[in-house]
Design a protein that fits this description.
This protein is of the alpha+beta class and 307 residues long. It contains 7 helices and 16 strands. It has helices at residues 27-31, 55-68, 77-91, 163-175, 219-230, 243-248, 279-292; strands at residues 7-10, 13-16, 34-44, 49-53, 97-105, 118-126, 138-146, 180-184, 192-193, 196-202, 205-208, 236-238, 251-256, 260-267, 270-271, 303-305. Strands 7, 8, 9, 10, 11, 12, 13, 14 and 15 form a 9-stranded mixed sheet that branches. Strands 2-1-6-5-3-4-16 form a 7-stranded antiparallel sheet. Helix 4 (163-175) links the parallel strand 7 (138-146) and strand 8 (180-184). Helix 5 crosses helix 7 (279-292). The radius of gyration is 20 Å and the shape is globular. 42% of the residues are buried.
């Protein structure tokens, strides 16, 4: 499908994406006054079915973001879910997609402190899966920008304006010749990447910063921790990580709904695993996709059929 011809859900109506408009003076346009979720849906060719991954968990987090951001939202979980199903069906997607679901402050002439009127858009778009192969991976720079924290702009809420922090770090890293960045938090410990959580492996133990280390309460992060412990019997530890540990780790990767699992092959010029994808990262990657496609019965409740 031509992406310009796809349909989008806006304010309860299915309309062509080229007709989906908001006022330039709305608080979401002027100040980033919105909260959102990025939801992955995966096509199962054998079953001829499209599955939304951990949909209920995404909506629990969306409600939490709405609460923290003090929006007077009229939307229920059923509204969220039905809107997503309706717009995906209307586009007849039968491939892997990502859905951006955003609750925002609409209207004309509101301010940065406006809590209403509230509107929502739901925008699905095709998005293929990450591929791990050879020496392909991310070259990361530890950012000079500090990760936002619960003392200023809490990363616990997925607020549109929060991502300016990620923008600054990501663009700085790219200007310096890297692919993306790794943040330190206000205590000087490793936090996460721009829009992604961080994991490293040392001596066959999987480490990731705790949710109190200025990181998003990531659904992908939680998925990886659970499959590492429950399926692969990999010892997994949530603890603070020092910067120099990045330079001596055996493997590392960033993860999130958008990037899934993507290996890190270099940090600040230090090669990680000789610049190749490590064996435990690859094992986690393969198992992650098996979970997404319903191979493991204990995780099938994470899959919501669209058709």
């Amino acid at each position: 499908m031509d992406n310009n011809k796809r349909l989008i859900w806006l304010g309860g109506k299915l309309i062509p994406v080229t007709e989906a408009k908001i006022n330039v003076l709305s608080p979401t346009s002027q100040f980033g006054a919105n909260v959102f979720e990025g939801i992955r849906c995966y096509w199962n060719e054998e079953q001829q079915q499209l599955y939304a991954f951990r949909l209920d968990d995404h909506y629990k987090r969306l409600h939490r973001s709405i609460k923290i951001f003090r929006l007077n939202s009229p939307y229920t979980t059923e509204d969220f879910k039905q809107g997503l199903i309706d717009v995906v069906k209307a586009n007849n997607y039968r491939e892997d997609i990502q859905v951006r679901q955003t609750v925002f402050v609409d209207g004309l002439g509101g301010t940065w402190s406006s809590c209403e009127p509230i509107n929502m858009f739901i925008a699905p778009i095709p998005k293929g899966r990450t591929l791990i192969e050879g020496k392909k991976g991310l070259r990361c720079q530890v950012s000079s920008w500090e990760r936002i924290s619960d003392r200023n702009l809490s990363p616990r809420a997925k607020v549109g304006a929060n991502y300016i922090n990620s923008r600054m770090a990501h663009l700085e890293a790219q200007q310096n010749g890297y692919d993306t960045a790794i943040f330190l938090n206000n205590h000087g410990k490793v936090a996460e990447g721009p829009g992604s959580c961080f994991f490293m492996i040392r001596d066959n133990i999987l480490y990731t910063p705790p949710c109190t280390a200025s990181v998003l309460e990531s659904i992908t992060r939680d998925t990886i921790i659970r499959i590492a412990r429950e399926l692969l019997n990999i010892e997994t530890v949530e603890r603070d990580i020092d910067r120099t540990e990045l330079y001596i780790c055996d493997e590392a990767f960033l993860c999130g709904s958008a990037m899934e699992i993507t290996q890190v092959i270099n940090i600040d010029g230090y090669p990680v695993n000789s610049g190749e994808c490590g064996p435990l990262t690859k094992k986690l990657f393969d198992t992650y996709y098996e979970v997404l496609t319903g191979k493991y019965a204990q995780y099938r409740h994470w899959l919501t059929p669209i058709y």
